[in-house]
Fold this protein.
Amino acid sequence: MNEEICVLACPGSKNLANGIAKILATKIIDVELKVFPDGESKIKLNGNPSGKLAVMVQSTYPTVNARLLETLFIIKKAMKMGADVCAVIPYLAYARQDKEFVEGEAVSMESIGSMFDSSGVRNLITVDIHSDTALKYFTIPAYTVSAVPLLANHFKKQDLVQPLVVSPDIGGSKRAEEFAKIMGTESIVLSKHRDRNTGQVSIDDSIPELAKVKNRDTILVDDIISTGGSIVKATEVLKKAYCNNVLIACTHALLLDDALDKLRSAGVQEIVATNTIPSQVSKVDVTPAICDQINKL
C-alpha cells in the first residue's frame, strides 16, 4: 500500500478513480455530493487526506458548470485538511473555447486556466486536450496524456477490411496519422467548414483523397463527440464514396441528446470511446495512461 498518495473518488469519475487507486496501490477516499432543491451543492470527503498527495479524479462533463464548482470545493477542502492536490480532469470542459473566434467572445479556456492556477493545486493532468493552445492557459504544471495508442490498439485487434483512418478535419490530422501508424495503415483528412456564427457544418465531398475509401473499412478518429453533427456529415461523405463500414474512435463521448441514435441512423457500424466520460460506448480504459503520468510527477 502506497501511504504517500491517496485518490479522491469524485462524483463525476468514481469508476475511473477506483481504477487509478488499484493501479497505484493506494487508499481511496470517497467524495460525497448532495444537491439541494435550489441547485446548490454540498461536498463531503469521507476520509482524511492529510499529509498525502491527493489525486483528485473528476471529469467535467455535463452539467459542466456544476462539475467545475464541485471540483473547486473538493480541492479547497482537501487542502484545508492538509493535502497537496493533483487534479486529474480526464475530460476538461471549455478546452474548445481556446480563442476568440468571433469578435466579442470570451476566451473561456483562459478563465478555466486561471481558476485552476488560483485553486492551489500542485499540477493538473487531462486526457487528449482539444488543443495545445488550451494547455498554455495554465501557469501550474499541466499535462495532457494521449488515448490514441489505447484506441488504436483496440481497433488493431479487429478483423477489418483494408482499414483507413480518417480525420474529420485538419485539426485532427496529427491524431489520425498517429492512429494510422500504430495500426500499420494510412490516413486521410476531410475538408470541414464550420460557420462560426450559425454553427452549421459542411464537408467537401469532392476532395481527391476520397478515392481511397472505396470498399475499405474507415475509422473516423476524433477527440470529442458532442451532438454528433460533424461525424454524421463525415459518415455521409464516406458512404457516398462507397466505403465499406464506418467505425468511430473517440476519446470523449459526450453524445448529447439523441447523438447516438443519429450516428447509428447515419450508418455508423461501431462507436468506441474511452472511459473519460462514462457511457455505453466507453470500451477503452485510460487508467494506465493517467497512472503513467502520475508516476512521472
Notes: The first strand starts at residue 2 and ends at 9. Residues 2-147+285-296 form a domain with the Rossmann fold fold (CATH 3.40.50.2020).
